[in-house]
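## Example pair
The file below holds two records. Each record gives the amino-acid sequence first, followed by its structure token line.
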Amino acid sequence: MIPEDAEGPAGSSSATGLAAFDFDGTLRRGDSLFPFLGLVAGRVAALSAIARGAARVIVRTRRVDRDAIKDLTFRRLLTDRETDPLLKLAAEFGTGLTDGLRPDVVARLRAHQQLGHRVVIVSASLTIYLQAVADHLGCELVATNLNQVNGRFTGRIEGRNCRGAEKVVRLREVIGERPDEVWAYGDSHGDDEMLDWADHGVRVGRTEISAQP
């Protein structure tokens, strides 16, 4: 893993390169999931669902299992919601997120694109609103998906929460053969496996990162 302000090796312009960016705390300062859930169900209801989910998981497992808490929260807040209205709301929310992206990290992302690298946002947040961000940036997206049945959300995650080791699993599924050079950008423990897997793992903090990889 390299420091956040370190420069990559000269001549890292391989067209077979890959750059993977976490979203919350990396491309954007702070969290996006709670504001979205608050928009959908109301801030008080979202806080209550998270608190009740956390309490239930901790009592049952004696530990803070973020995946399990997220699963219970989604079940409480999103079960049986109609697909089309929620997708429309999510798209509008995602479009609004593009105004709050970190300029320094976006500049790094653009530099990778200019070098011909494949760029992917890899996030534990939801595909239904992050797709608007990915479209805005002109990159691919790997994120957490929600299950839908007969025009309604079930409140369950489709597959697994895209966090931790799952980020690497999902990335590998999408890209197929590993590129010659892999860069990864993240800010939290949920990004550790992705940063370790990359040739150049960049820990993004409060200090601005340089524009060039």
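Second record, same layout:
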Amino acid sequence: MPTQRGNVTLDNLQVLNAILYVAEQGCKWRGLPKQFGNWHTIYTRMNRWAKSGVLDRIFTQLQQAQIIRVKIEAVALDGTIVKVHPDGTGALKKTVRKPWADPAAGGPPRFIWLPRMLERP
């Protein structure tokens, strides 16, 4: 685990326990019980670890030591294929494309990461 710097209220083990709790229960970050600490602090540290690759290394080491078994699945939920009401099909089409309408422009992701805890070793 990374070394902690500065005056921190949560140690790395508490943050890891909270991340595993969210992964196992499937709850939202705001639904994290108060016993784990401030949800925003935990989410921020988890996000920083995920971007720097620390989280992958931690889970790899824990799985190699057969302490935990985690399988990450991605579930695609796409809301762009919604059936239009018959009254809404006769409208004139807009001819000017807006920059956000371009699919290559990014925007919010159209998938949800769904971590699942496997059986314990």
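Notes on the second record: Residues 12-83+105-117 form one domain. The two ends are 22 Å apart (CA to CA).
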